[in-house]
From TrEMBL:
Spans traversing the lipid bilayer: 20-40, 283-302, 314-333, 345-363, 383-403
Gene3D superfamilies: 1.20.120.1770
Protein name: Cytochrome b561 and DOMON domain-containing protein
Main location: membrane
Alphabetized Pfam families for the sequence: Cytochrom_B561, DUF568
UniProt keyword terms in alphabetical order: Electron transport, Iron, Membrane, Metal-binding, Signal, Transmembrane, Transmembrane helix, Transport
Cofactor section: heme b
Compartments, as annotated in UniProt: Membrane
Domain DOMON stretches: 68-196
PROSITE patterns with a match to the protein in the record: CYTOCHROME_B561 (PS50939), DOMON (PS50836)
Organism: Crotalaria pallida
Length: 430
């Protein structure tokens, strides 16, 4: 601690600027450790009770679904294996869509036989059309086109909550009804549901890719009502830990280490203290980031069928760059070695690339968690803005010192100032 205090006090003396002291830097990290976990949103669970009553029918059982504040009600007739199902969902835009369906084989989107409701582009009335979500839909190789389902669908309909006079708007509730004949003695079903922002013609576009939207799957038994849905609450805590650790490591500690190396190394009064501060921050940040990276890999294993392509690729790239930076310390040539300049170029390029990609992936992580407008993101942005402000102040100061030294050197060459002036200004260093 004394080393850091000495380093900061020497920095303030050398720069003659009101730079952030240790009592500001340390609370900044403590602030991020405490505020981010409290601010990160938990996966939404419906707080309302499900209902077995609708305007046209009464069902035997109902259940709240784990995401999007959706719910279902159903009646199963064992004598003829018929399932009467009502799904309750909500729109997220006036031109959006809401859908639900069954996957005959596995709890995932691909292979789902779905019924999707949306406003008719021509009349504005609600239409309900059947779709089969084959692998080409997930890869977005072609538009999703309506076609008959290959399951025994006896009837289907859709209605807005509030009747025919209701209009589609953000948050408007819709009810999708379906009567399906199941296979004999097969009462366990895989229910898949989701919603999107737009419909192009009669082709629903891709839904949002937050953790909630990618987890809209539930497996349950229509006879007993028992659910085998994934334990979203358990994963929520793990996601919060993953996000907090990575935001602090890749998004705060590594930029702080880069700032330390760029602006403190030229201050001779600090001696080698800047290097130890730089290496310590980077090693601590990388160690913490490695833990966060491992948690992310574990989360992927616990979430089959849920993929965050860009976030995952950026995370792997940042981790590899961080590992290369750490290994570079083992192969650091001494100052007189002819390969030192090449090592420095490599070290700077890999280091700045790691910092930039790390920051990008932190913000991508907020999008993945559905926290793009949360207090967690605001808290992180405040912490990052503080670092950027310090960086700008140091950069401006460096240019002021550089320009002043260049001007004095030019005047010295022209004989306008003498050697005594040079001695008086010897306290300014590159």
């Amino acid at each position: 601690m004394k080393t850091i205090e000495t380093l900061l006090s020497s920095l303030i003396t050398s720069l003659s600027l009101p730079i952030l002291p240790l009592p500001i830097i340390m609370p900044l990290l403590l602030y991020l450790f405490l505020i981010l976990p409290l601010s990160l949103p938990h996966i939404a669970f419906s707080s309302s009770h499900c209902t077995t009553q609708t305007t046209t029918k009464t069902f035997q059982k109902c259940m709240n679904l784990p995401t999007q504040q959706a719910s279902i009600a159903w009646t199963y007739h064992p004598y003829n294996f018929t399932l009467e199902l009502a799904f309750f969902g909500s729109f997220i835009s006036p031109s959006g869509w809401v859908g639900c369906g069954l996957n005959p084989t596995s709890p995932e989107m691909t292979g789902t036989r779905a019924l999707i409701a949306f406003p008719d582009p021509n009349s504005g009335q609600i239409v309900l059309l059947p779709y089969i979500l084959d692998p080409t839909v997930k890869l977005q190789k072609s538009p999703l086109l309506s076609r008959p389902l290959d399951i025994h669908l006896l009837s289907s309909s859709a209605a807005m909550y509030g009747g025919k006079m209701a209009t589609v708007h953000n948050g408007a509730t819709i009810q999708i009804y379906a009567t399906i004949k199941l296979k004999p003695n097969k009462t366990k079903i895989h229910l898949v549901w989701n919603r999107g922002l737009y419909v192009q013609g009669y082709s629903p576009t891709i839904h949002p890719t937050t953790s909630n939207d990618l987890s809209s799957i539930s497996t349950f038994d229509v006879l007993s009502g028992s659910s085998a849905a994934p334990q979203h609450k358990d994963l929520t805590a793990l996601r919060v830990v993953h996000g907090t650790i990575n935001a602090i490591s890749w998004g705060i500690m590594l930029p702080m280490g880069a700032i330390t190396a760029r602006y403190l190394r030229h201050i001779e009064a600090l001696g080698p203290a800047w290097f130890y501060a730089h290496a310590g921050m980077q090693l601590f940040g990388f160690t913490l980031g490695t833990v966060g990276f491992g948690i992310g890999i574990h989360l992927g294993q616990l979430s089959p069928g849920v993929e965050y392509g860009l976030h995952r690729k950026l995370g792997i790239a940042v981790f590899c760059l961080g590992a290369l930076q750490t290994l570079a310390l083992l192969f650091r040539p001494n100052a007189r070695n002819k390969f030192r300049k090449y090592w420095k170029s490599y070290h700077h390029f890999v280091g700045y690339s790691c910092v930039v990609l790390g920051l990008v992936n932190v913000f991508q992580g907020f999008e993945v968690m559905g926290a793009s407008r949360s207090y967690a993101k605001l808290s992180y942005c405040l912490g990052l803005s503080t670092l950027i402000g310090v960086c700008i102040a140091l950069e401006v100061n460096s240019w002021v010192v550089f320009c002043r030294k260049s001007k004095e050197e030019k005047m010295r060459r022209e004989g306008l100032i003498g050697s005594s002036d040079k001695g008086n200004n010897s306290g300014i260093h590159d």
